[in-house]
Write a structure and sequence with these properties.
456 residues, 7-stranded antiparallel beta sheet, mainly beta, globular, 4-stranded antiparallel beta sheet
Amino acid sequence: MSHFDKVIAGVVLGLGLAVAGLSIASARLGPTVDTMQTAQSLDGALVNTQIVLSFTEPMSIRSVERSFAITPRVPGDFSWSGNELLFIPRRNLRFATRYTVTVGAGSQSAGGAHLARTFRQSFTTQSEHLLYLGTSGAERGRLVLASVNGDRSVVGASDGLITDYSVSFDRSLAVYVKRGSDGERADQLWLLSLADGSTQRVFARSDWDITQPHFSPDGRYVVFLASNVLLCQKYYGCFRDLRPQIELLDLSNHRVFPFRSRTDVPITNFIDFSPAGQIAYTDLGSALTLAQPNGQGLIHIPNENNSLEFVGFDTPGDKAAFVGQTPYSTGGDILVYLRGKYLDVSRGIYDSSTPAFAGSGTRIAYAAYRGEQGIEPVYGINAYDFRSGRTLKLTSERGTSDWDPQWSSDDRYIAFVRSQPQEAMYMGSGEIWVMRADSRDAHPLGAIGRDIQWVT
């Protein structure tokens, strides 16, 4: 055997002894947790994440489950697949919270070897997230997902052709309107999964202008406005109607059919679905009309000598907010219809707009007139508490206007739009800000957009 062959043989023998030594050491030290995984979002683990632990060898299920702990404590269930343990929390984790997962040394492999060392690893959950429609720069015409910390990511179509959108009642989906190509009508409806970012086109009509898509509470329908619809009527023949027509998209089969109201009063504007599953729209005879998707079960909310524009419902569905003139107001007032009568929550303020209910329905925020800078109006955010009847001024910056407040799902935060100069308010967009519901920690997200909607 040559000297070279002796060297090679020595190396091979050494490697074999090393591998054998490592195998003996592994058997003596016991199994370990190889990895821990959570589903991630912009700035942390999703609050509805499951926790996956991978072990280096098959484990004794009962011993591992007895040794498993998570702090702060979270009740949950276990599921196994081979060497992987899946912990499924029974409720969502808390936002922006640090959790620590521990698997104690009492855990054993299927062969009886104890865990080599206690496993301990921490993760932090996401902050709350919101969507908005970008109106400036690279985000223009795109849907943007943002955290309260300012992390942002474009979701859905990235071609800058999105014109309108809304979020489902359970905040798992968004439906958006997209133009077929630059300069064409807004003729396509798309669905966006907020869980995995996937998209699906569900409707397209090259001859329709489509606006204001909204989900039904059960997620079965999307209702929207379409104009330039070809209508054919007895004696009048066929013609293109430029007035908005209410259409319903059945998401089970992607078929569209017109909404037919059981009233002769002309429909002037479509608004939304109510939490009870009624289509809410305005007509010439009342401040708001509610009807089932088949057009039956009409309910009219009267104007009562007011000139009002419907804005939205609270989550429980027992309050409706309106903006407009009353016989006693000097400008726009915020009126809430509850228990069969109107409550003026902005009485005494010269002008108010853009109201939004807290998720609990106990408060409502709105933009309130503060004064003028030159000839330009300045607005700040107010919040009215239905329980105490008190109004709290949340923002009072000089030289800027704050408006379009939107509450997070747990009422902890309010997002709003700040504009400078104030004319931007009338164009529907501005700088997006977030603050705590008590007005603390107000900060910009570094984005310009409109139509803020919270998704977590």
